[in-house]
Amino acid sequence: MGNKRYLGLELKRSLISGLPNDVARHCLAKVPRIYHRSMRSVSRTWKKTLESEDFFAVRRKSGIADAWLVVILMENGHNSYCIYNLASKSLLLKAPLPDPPLPTGLEIGDVGGGGFATFKTAAVGALLVVLESRTSSRRSSVENHTRIFDSIKNKWRAGSPPTVARSQFAMATVNGTVYVAGGCDHDGDFVPATESYDVATDTWTQRSTMPYNNLDRVDCKVVFQGKLYVRVFSSTRCEVLVYDPGSDSWHRDSSGMSAMDHGELVATSSGIYSLTASDCLYKFVDGEWVLAGSIQRKPSSSSSSPAFNVHSQRAFGLRDEIFVLGAGDLSCVIGEDLVCHGLFLGSSWFRAGSVVMG
Question: What one-character DSSP code corresponds to residue 30?
């Protein structure tokens, strides 16, 4: 009787009857994440498994993790976030962006009255870290708010703000750690500080300062082969600064990358590209920018363009593919082994986005 009761308990705890749990876990891991919400309703054991970090670590290690692009955008004056399934290139979800927690001592009227909210994002596994910058009209300062989106549980939570307040900064993930570099203070003066953010411990750490010589602004960034490349401008020049997290050091890039002083930087597994405002795609090869192709609108697409500002990002690299947000169906004409996909955005005002893996 005791053995039967024990066996019964074990069967109840089994993920799939008749299979060892480690085998069953690998079976469940192969199911695309779009079905996980339905699977969580099967049992408490399945729900607990499908919401555990260990389960998604198995998916990432096995190379079967789903890639979702999470973007922040504005529609009808309200901020929203939407999620694209990059495997099917389809829109999965669109929902209002939660309001940020207000700093102690502030009221709703204190924040945002003196300026436009800007967003930057970075992904750590299945988590999206969103850093918002707003102008505090009463305090005459920049207020930063950190929010973290768990794409597995579809939940938001607040994170601690960085130690240095700024706007118009570069933000990216290198080897699982988020880095924020450069930017401007409330008066528009350049801020050369660099910070790293550990999302697991919710802590910010100051890093080496960017080489500072009369810089005005950060234009864009890209991560390639474990290093962060940031394009910066002064009144007289453009240059690319490179940050190596391993040595916590910055250096000026001398390879000629700064010759492309316009266009959005994006990286794949094979190289660094630049997508210009005229939809030309260049690749950096042996110290030179070489035309790799162009993004073209399909004949059936609308001729109107989505609203981008100078700080928007619309191109995203994933392994050997590039995804581009647009107002209609896009195609890529290229002369090399590169796959480029267009994702529909419509007339929304796009802010920022990153690819989460889970």
Answer: T
Structure confidence by residue, pLDDT tens digits, 209-256:
998 878 999 989 999 999 999 999 988 889 999 999 999 999 999 999
- Rounded distance, CA 71 to CA 253, Å? 30
User: Which among 199, 155, 193 has a CA at the least distance from the CA of 173?
Assistant: 199
Closest CA relative to residue 222, chosen from 161, 283, 164, 280? 283
Which regions of the chain are under pLDDT 70?
1-12, 101-116, 136-139, 297-312, 327-337, 346-348
What single letter denotes the amino acid at residue 343? Answer: L
Tell me the whole-structure pTM to 2 decimals. 0.87
Phi and psi of 318, rounded to 5°? Answer: -145, 110
Count other Cβ atoms within 10 Å, centred on residue 353.
28
Q: Which residues of 134-162 are buried (b: 16+ CB within 10 A; e: fewer)?
A: bbbeeeeebbbbbbbbbbbeeebeebebb
CA distance 276 to 256: 17
Supply the pLDDT for residue 266.
95
> Which residue's structure tokens are 């990059």?
86
Q: For residue 302, how many other CB atoms are within 10 A of its CB?
A: 14
